[in-house]
Amino acid sequence: MPPETTEEGRWFADHLLVHEPQLRAWLQSRFSSNVPVSDIIQESYLRVLRARQTDAVNAPKAFLFATARNLALNAARSAKVRGEHIFDPLDETQLLDEDANVRESVAHYEELEILTRAIQSLPDRCRQIFTLRKVYGLSQADIARKLDLSPRTVNAQLAIGLNKCADFVGKFCEKGSA
Known about the structure:
mainly alpha
């Protein structure tokens, strides 16, 4: 950490250090306890400061989180080669949401993924009706007209879809997979 009396130290405190609790929580939520989070954070600070010496860093928070993510993934890959299992698979293409709380964003995306899987597990007709109602917001009458079905059939398929999605989510929560 650079001395706080220097310009670099003030920049570090204002643009990087303020994000440490959020970064630490994000890394701990994404990787197991075997990932050296403190080491990754320190190495991330060092790399961002080095990059700043040669070029402007326009989005320091995003750069810090991306650097930490890459370092954590490298640590996880190295551990995998050594036969250790230290992280849960994650989508490397996920973008960093700078406006929302990282934990809330992660939880939201995980819930959305589970719900998407639940909807995808429905039978074709049921999934079509469920998607038109719950995702696109069409009324049951509009769905019945659009698919040339009776409103009673649409209502029954929606109830079936809702029950199956609830079962899927319940099983997922119990076992970690459905």
